[in-house]
User: Fold Crp/Fnr family transcriptional regulator from Desulfosporosinus nitroreducens.
Amino acid sequence: MENNEIWYLWSPWLKATNSPWEEVLHLGVKKRFKKNSIILGNGQPVNDLFYLHTGEIKLSSVNSNGEEKPVWYISRGNIFGEVPYFDKAHCYSIFTSVTDSVVYLFNRQVLTKTIIPQYPDIVLNIFNTMASKMRILASQVNDLSLNSPKMRVYKMIYSLVSDPINNVIYSSQQELANLLSIHRVTLNRILVDLKNSGIIQEDISKKRITLINAEELLKLIEAEQV
Assistant:
């Protein structure tokens, strides 16, 4: 099992893949968002494509009861809001700034009249980005139907192998549990077992999980898949 395959299929953190957009920032509108601000969502129409220049953004889905479930986290260097933008539909998912963030907005005229004709690398990047997100979402759905809560936690943590920062920073165990669609008590029990086995370290005061023994964690993943 390749490390990058585990990241690609199961990590809820999207790495920067949209560096070509840095070349066209002068064509966009720069906006700043404070931490915990809603950037996009709540049924609003979408007339711009968004690019995260700095910061971090959380994408959440909302059910009929108004309950939010985190889907993934977007780091700097990613575009977002592609689906409602190209579908010309309202956005009912919610994009929230996890940290103070700088976002560039590109309207339809700029995209269709300037960027698409003059920057073919960006066109290819849009296709690649949307395909990656679709595959990740499909894999998350597959995970929910086929994999145990323990396996979902294992794969989420193992994704740190490909992360240069090599840790998970979370706002609360409850949100992390919501992200993985498991009960918080179940998540806590799995994390305690991993800590006792010397596979991870968890700094509760800083809300940070660090993977320290990837080899042993991979063995647990492979054992679960047998």
